[in-house]
Amino acid sequence: MANAVGFIFTLCIFAAAVAHAHEKPAIQVEGDVYCDPCRVQFVTQLSRKLTGATVRLECTDLETKAVTYSVEGVTGADGHYTLNVIGDHPNDKCEVAVVKSPHEDCSEPMGDFDKSVVVCTDNTGIHSAVRYANPIGFMTSAALPQCASVLSELDILDTQ
After folding, report:
1. DSSP state at residue 1
2. CB count in 10 Å sphere of residue 67
3. pLDDT by 10-residue block (mean), the chain, 160 residues
4. How many Å apart are CA 59 and CA 104, to the nearest integer?
5. Strand 108-109 vs strand 136-139: parallel, antiparallel, or unpaired?
6. Global pTM value
């Protein structure tokens, strides 16, 4: 009898350890990475999504500033990425940042939009496991000549 109880206890501990090791992602973070050929740091009709761009989600503790979670991913053919977040991060600031561009001609990270803050906790009232990050990306080293007309159409550039 004692052996049976010991065996069942060991089996329960083993099952709990296996379940913990195979935790399902609590949250998925999705977003897009694009190339800004006009150097305006927002999407225009000349922008293109980047296939093969590397991104990193990093969560840091709000008090200690220590990194508590990090995961990298790569954009697919449509410039879209999906990152699986394991665990709940209610006391962290989580940001997705661009890491590496696959295109040498568009590899300068956007100073203001190379990161996007994402909430990675279930304790928010959001009824979805998916979190959508703002678009992030890279810029070309110089603006394309066509950018003047695009920005003029948006009433951003005065061509008079």
Report:
1. -
2. 11
3. 52 48 71 96 95 98 96 98 95 96 96 89 84 96 94 74
4. 28
5. antiparallel
6. 0.79
